[in-house]
Amino acid sequence: MPDLSLFIPNQWRNNRWLFSVLGVLVALAAGWLIGTWGVKGALMTIAVPVALCMVVGTLIEPKIGLLVYVHLSFLIGFIRFLPPETPLGTGLDSVLILSLLGTFLNGKRMNWKRLRQPILWLLIVWLSYTILEYFNPEAPHRPAWFYNVRSFSLSWFIIAIIVLVNPISRNDIRLFIRTWLVWSFLAALWAFKQQYIRLEPAEIAWLAEGGARTHILWGQLRSFSFYSDAGQFGSEMAGVTLICLIFFFEGTSWLRRIIYLLLAFILFWGFAVSGTRGALFVLLAGYPAYLFIGRNLMNILRGCLVAAPVLAFLMFTHIGDSNYQIYRIRSALSPTEDASFLVRLENQQKLRNYLKDKPFGAGIGTSSGAGNRFSPNHFAAQIPTDSWYVQLWIETGIVGLTIYLLMLVGIILLGIYKIWQLKDPQLAILMIALLTEFIGIAVVSYTNPILGQFPTSTIIFINTILFTTCDRWDTPKQEIYENRN
Description:
Elements: H1 10-13, H2 16-37, H3 39-60, H4 62-75, H5 88-105, H6 118-132, H7 145-165, H8 170-196, H9 201-215, E1 216-217, E2 220-221, H10 230-250, H11 254-274, H12 280-294, H13 297-316, H14 324-331, H15 339-355, H16 368-374, H17 379-382, H18 388-420, H19 425-444, H20 456-468, H21 477-484
Antiparallel strand pairs: 1-2
Helix pairs in contact: 2-3, 3-4, 3-5, 4-5, 4-8, 5-7, 6-7, 6-18, 7-20, 8-10, 8-11, 10-11, 10-12, 10-19, 12-13, 12-19, 18-19, 19-20
């Protein structure tokens, strides 16, 4: 990182009295804030300097801003513990824009040629469509467009630019994955606290305000940790379980393999206590994808030997049905016997009738949270989406949904092609893990609207750029051979 002292004017460096005066002024300001606002003032005296350091650090090194964005994406789940009007979403957007600004300010050391990557063109097509959706004549409240377009396309596009042109190293990728796993581990522990110890008052209040309808079933809590809901939490836990299993199978150090196996068990039980049945399909889709993309016969045989008994246990026995978590996981394999699944099909039939003459949908921002806020009486706002793809279908129509699905397929195919070209096996393992987790999340998004929710969206947006451009970190075979010797 650059030396921050270089940004201090020369005439200031020898004037110690100036810094003494500034220190006294800062101390007086902190005292006034604490005396006037109490605890809030004390928090401000800490938050303001930290925020200033973050702003300066991001402008000097944009990768810092991207890492802060990842951390804040997990922290946003604690909004339940804050006043209702706390603008955490706006704060996240500000960090992302600041990172983009820092990228432009450091333009001389950025590799702008990487913007020619196919992944960016796929995102441009989708972004262009969502921008045109602003003019959809069916939209009842145009300003609502801004609230959902960020999670639909805009944030993805900005993250793509930042990740593509910044000098990101393999160490940066490892740091990102470790950060992701650490936060997931903490999320699992928080869920265990909810399930086996107690809920916090703010969480109880959230359940009382309506969350209990979907998070307390037959007297059993569906743990949601510090995520938006149990659906997203369970899907994320299944996704990181898959990541840890891949690292276990592909690891070379037995110590690391044991650590990843233990972590996989912890995260899998985090998925179990969420009571999210659909999240099982993250594993059911991602695990076969890992075996296929890896193209390793021994792994395929080993994978079948591991998966077959587990599926047989769930599908053909009733062992463990007395345990609520095991029963919920088993019931995911019989969706036609589930009343809530049948209700979803009925809602989709209603939407099909409503959207049959609206190929471009009802307009971005008409369903889900934005719809309930800005146009609660609109038909689109009154039908539960229950699926990311259903939400896209409502707001962008069959045309938008088709473009989006084709983009996802294009991203997956591009990722497979890039990974198969890699010469470095260790890099290939990292990228296969990211790609297969993405495939699992893309499949489970049919049952849960998680692709547009923090922190899943942040992780997915970064991952897609990494595995579709992974050849930039590849190591020539000759160099790999020399390092081994």
